[in-house]
Please model this.
Amino acid sequence: MTDLLRFPADFVWGASTAAYQIEGAAEEDGKGPSIWDTFVRRPGAVRDGHTGAVACDHYHRLDEDVALMRRLGLDAYRFSISWPRVLPAGAGRVEPRGLDFYDRLVDALLDAGIEPTPTLFHWDLPQALEDEGGWMVRDTAYRFGEYAAVVAERLGDRVRRWITLNEPFVHMSFGYGFGVHAPGRALMLDALPVAHHQLLGHGLAVAALRAGARPDAQVLIANNCSPVRLRADAASAADRLAADAYDALHNRLFNDPLLLGRYPDLSAYGLADPSWGGVVQDDDLKVIAAPLDGLGVNYYNPTWITAPADPAAGLPFDLAEPQEAYRRTAFDWPVVPDGLTELLVGLKAGYGDALPPVWITENGCSEPAGVDDRARIDYLAGHVGAVARAREQGVDVRGYFTWSLLDNFEWAEGYHQRFGLVEVDFETQTRTPRASFEWYRALIAAQRP
Model:
């Protein structure tokens, strides 16, 4: 390995997955339906009608998958807990068989020398709660805090690092704003209460974890962050205002309340009222801004913005394509490793001492099927190098979790996008480590003293 890829011995190397994307067993052992179980049955919602009913069958192949992690040499494994597998109706009755599964997973990881890093919510809201309004209503935040307490009581003696929410921006915008993810509600800017209620739920979960987990527990959130860029031909004052408006929505809406205890200026979205018409209640921001042990950052690429061609259309910005000829992943996302350095250094500059240690909780790419995935190796090497450069500039990055350990159900794309270090044949469930698996294994081994 080059000097660029050398990290301290205590730097944490991991991989990430999510419950609905890999577990399968959608109707087994008392699990209740999630919004994704419902959404996949909507005609045209998911490419080719794919569902997560079986996915990677991880629910039944736990031991095989942990053996792969041990072979890879992971320090930590980030997985998510299925809320409706633990609380089938989202609240009330606890399903012991659901907790038993995560109990076995945690023990298997610890036996393999891998630190379990559970995420409490990765987009699979219990359908029963969505029927009551989902994240559009305040009550869901309270139910999330109760769910966190249930999980902490069972697993908190062995789990040291927790993540509350995964990418609340994406869940708000794709699930409630544009309707392309579950629950499929196209509310546009009327979806903004989803942001506040997720963040309030996060704060309540932090309190529950602090009360119910081990004394040295660490609590994080995983935010999807994107540096905002202007095209070279879009540098007017209107373009800069559009970029600021987008940054407020994508990044600062979910970072400022956590780290600064306040929301950014959202007047561009018609929210000059700091209470958002009563959505934000007294003391909510104190709950949300409970001290964090780390900020999880999920990074895939920058976002290019211009001034809106039609300001009356509703959004104060337009998305744009970069002028540069970046390589594209199979998902058609531009590969921009220096964007990760830009993002991390920008977070440090913007938040200063308020920024806790940072963890890269997702970073990876979709590439064509096959095990000789040299493009993925180049992608990972570039982005790990970007983390190293950010550390050299003073950003306290403590760990890197690649997305993903396994090929999986990629939401509205079904099984057409492959992010895994391990190729999965979804007909036979055969797992085959790719070249990138061996590259990552060698990288991790090279860090050992």
